[in-house]
Amino acid sequence: MTTVPQSVPREAARIRSMVDIYLSTARMAVASEFQYRTGHYFFLLGMIAEPVIYLVVWTTIADQQGGEVQGLSAGYFAAYYIVWTLVRNMNIVFGAPYWEYRIREGDLNRDLLRPVLPLHYDIAWFAGWKVVMIVLWLPIAFALSLVFDPTLSPRPAEIVTFAIAIWGAYLIRTMLQESLGMLCFWTTRGAAIFDLYMTVELLLSGRLVPLPLMPDWVQDISRFLPFQWAFYFPIESLVGDLSNQELVQGLFVQLLWILIGLAIFRVAWRSAIKRYSAVGG
Amino acid sequence: MNAIRVSLLFLKLGVLNELQYRVNFFVSLLQAAIALVTGLVVLSLVYSHTEELNGWSKSELLCVLGVQILMGGAIRTYIQPNMTRLIEDVREGKLDFALTKPQDSQVLVSVREVRIWSAVDIVSGLIVLAVGLSRVTTSLGPEDAVAFAVALLFGAILIYCFWLVIATIAFWVVNMWHAVELFDGIFQTGRWPIGIYPTWLRVSVTFLVPIAFAVTVPAEALTSRLDWQTLALSIGFTVVALGFARWFWRFGLKRYSGASA
Amino acid sequence: MAEHAVVVDRLEKVFDVPERDPGLVAATKGLFRRKTREVRAVDGISFTVDQGEVVGFLGPNGAGKTTTLKMLSGLLHPSGGEGRVLGFVPARRQREFLSRITLVMGNRNQLQWDLPALDSYELNRAIYRIPREEFAPLRDELIELLDIGDLVRKPVRQLSLGERMKAEIVGALLHKPRVLFLDEPTIGLDVTMQKRIRTFVADYNERYGATVLLTSHYMADVEALCKRVVVIHHGTILYDGVLSGLAETFAAYKTIGVALENGHADLSAYGEVIHRDGDWITLRVPKAETSAVTAKLLADEQVLDLNVEDPPIEDVIELVFAQEKPE
User: Fold this and answer.
1) Chains adjacent to B (≥3 CB pairs closer than 8 angstroms)
2) Residue in A248, A120, A103 with CA at minimum distance from that of residue A184
3) Binary contact (A213, B50; C-beta < 8 A)
4) What is the pTM for the complete model shown?
5) Which residue has the higher pLDDT, C112 or A160?
């Protein structure tokens, strides 16, 4: 990829073609993934086991303690974990296991021969898939709400923030996972690294429990890491009680992490391709 | 018995095969450690906010965690590899060998694969169990140990039946690629006392996906909660399930061979 | 580099391959120490290809053909030497370079599996920035040339191997590449399909003047398409020239076919008997002795019919490929 500054018309053409590529890919993704909607549905159903378990455990504790755990009510937990299911899905991106597959099956050769960075293809594809996911998720969320009685009454500002934040979360996670996936060029055991990452993320992102329930030192560390901005922040923006200022700040922090992640990825990608071209596929 | 001889043969082959991949050992070790740490973190988090959960103390729940990890290890070592391979073979039409070899087809597809490195989970689960037991106040007698072993064995067989039924469904619904994740998700319910779950969930994880019999019941044996009726139910249910799974398997196999004629 | 489309100078590719002996003892040892072996996949090859030329690379599996193509398309960095395509260094993977080449590998998919090929073509249009006015006519023309009209509307996974290959080729040519790298394009296809694809490639080359580098281990591919053939074995070029010259360079023998009055005569004194078919006996003799043996046969035996032939190209190639790697 050349970095020579280009004249304005060329730049405009480049942007237009990028949009074109994104739309074409997203459209393909929707058509393709929609064919597997039954499989996706089962996946969604299986996936709700995790939050439902946490929900039940914490509401049980809340009930045992007289209705609240550290100021969080049973209704809050219900709302938290139901919104959790959407955010969790928005978080699913091409990760290390997929890069391993891509390299092994030779798909990477196909992608490298194209004059476009595979990252764009990945982002666009999953964006299209997410649209299908969201549609499938709605009835599940509705059913869960009937069963677990969440307390949810968001302000318009919160709804808008949430709508933006879930895509911000998607991009943060994309950058991180794609960067992590680069390790697959050096080892065939990307799965192990992936597991390690998932564990750290599980504990620090708000996926396990709402962050305020974690010990203070964990919360302090987490503030400087990207994980909670891809998970806890979007949920909290809708379910919790953040001020307008906090909402906007959160979105900016998301943007910051997207840019940091992108920078890391570009460096990692360059190294990875050098390595791939030396060793072959 | 022939089935046992065949199983042992495949076991030996599998071990020899897996020993080649040194990295798998360290990876499995890492994964076991991660699973363990996560489980312990969650437990301590929960118990930092409460004294007991549905009547179970922290050390008792540690025992449950131990059993769950142990059982999970057993499933991942022996049951899941065979069943996922079966699902794949059904999808790709590679089951002809099962129909043409002199051994019983069900035995063949159930014992071919083994992932020995997942056995580190079995070890890790036993360690956790031991630690939990050492802190449990009530004393245990030999009949508790026997009850535990029986409950564990029959629980494992039940899980096998469940998986076999799921894999057999692949004869009709060819695309079952999320089965493992689905199962792993539901298996997590075994970490907690099933008393806390709403009725519909409790019934599902007892009779639909037999997690309760595989994890909670053996744990109850070790924490002096088990009554003989539950144990009898476990045994009885397992026998019925085995019969049904076998019948269903042969039914599916008939359809398979008919379809690919 | 105006005239030459491809220039290759002492190109090399060396791999470090881990070695693993069988058995339990070796496996346990392997837990701690890893042995590697150096494999010279491409061992210093040089050649040039003019624009519009169709060159066939012939060689058995592992000869280095695919590795060479991968280096020329930018997927692999050479370990030594240099290769240039259309003046570009392939490894830099510049956009202008990638937009002018195409690599079609025999059994790899470039098309989306679950969707009709048309959708994948649409994506290629966006990726290569093909103007819409040019795109549709070219796409339709290619579809017609390869005769896959209805098939492009079906999901790719429902197509047979041959149909899929055709659809892949259409997708690979939509951006009008100047250089085509075809890696084993007819592998796994039936004879009719192979012929079809060969005809198409020849037509395409004539129409659009694209340079074609084709690898294969099927002699028929090369015979049908290429005036010039490069024989590669063990990473080196054994021959680079016209096809007809191949037999002359490598085959040091000719075959004599003879029908005798006495069909059961023993002719082993004249040369190596390689075939007996009823009354027809085929002999293999060293080239230099051909006329002498022929004369002797005619003089000493009751000959009904006799002909002298060059050995079939396939046999020649087989012998060439069977040579062990010189140490």
Assistant:
1) A, C
2) A103
3) no
4) 0.79
5) A160
